[in-house]
Amino acid sequence: MSSVVANIVIGLVTSLLSGTGVWLGQRLLRLRRRRRAAAFYGVGAGDRCLLVIYRMPWQGQPDSMRHPDILALVDLAVQLRELGAEPEVVPFDALTEAPGQQAEFCLGGPSVNPRTRAHLAHYLPGVTVQPYDPERRDSIEVVAGQQRFARQREPDEQVYAVLARFVPSPGSRPVFVVSGQTAVANRGAVAFLTRNDRRLQRLAGATGRFCLVVRVASPQVYGHGMVEVAGDITEAAFAPEPAAPPGAELPAEAANDGPG
């Protein structure tokens, strides 16, 4: 074999080995990222996961949802199916199991989704979402510690959503809560979740939990696209409620409750 042919063969083999190494490296990196994403969402191949929705009588349909919320569910389902999971849409009143048995994504504020309300009360006691009342200035305002996130008086100038992840008990599957002031805010929070899951993996850390308020700017103009973190309220959200001082009187309705 002449030296020219030998050099060509060596070059081809080197290129082939180098290309194979790059391909294998990229494949391993994608697989690692996929495993980390699956662990973050709490799903595996073939695993059932729950998309918990509200029911809102609207336009004569008793079990309807607003259009941006439907699109948010689609966005979530696509992300989860790419990880091999089997997402199942479940209305809040058709689900009675305790959280943590399957990965759960609870969509909608506490005024429309009682399961969101229960999650906030039991697992995020430091977060309060004021009731909807168009006559009140603090209608659907998010409060956490000293931070307040009010919906603007101007028509949809900006809206907020609570985006939280927690693990109900050691070894259980995670629960994600998406509680927006509007349906567009819900979709914005879901978009932020799916676009930034690697960043949120680091934020969750060893505790597996975080609680953010995200802001969707100018939703009437830009839809859900312009979304950013307005505040990290993790510390306040998961802080236990202060215990009642010794000898404090119970509310009348609680004092009258018997053991059974």
Structure description:
- The chain is 38% helix and 23% strand.
- By secondary structure, it is α/β, with parallel strands linked by helices.
- The chain has a single domain, classed as Chitobiase/beta-hexosaminidase domain 2-like (Chitobiase, domain 2, 2-Layer Sandwich), CATH 3.30.379.
- It has a seven-stranded mixed beta sheet, sandwiched between helices.
- β7 and β8 (147-149) form a beta hairpin.
- It is globular.
- The protein starts with a helix and ends in a 5-residue tail after the last helix.
- Mean pLDDT is 84; it is low at 243-260.
Describe the protein's topology.
Elements: H1 3-41, E1 48-53, E2 56-58, E3 61-64, H2 67-82, E4 86-91, E5 104-107, H3 114-123, E6 127-129, E7 142-144, E8 147-149, E9 158-166, E10 175-180, H4 183-195, H5 197-204, E11 210-217, H6 219-222, E12 227-232, H7 234-237, H8 252-255
Parallel strand pairs: 1-4, 1-5, 5-10
Antiparallel strand pairs: 2-3, 6-7, 7-8, 9-10, 9-11, 11-12
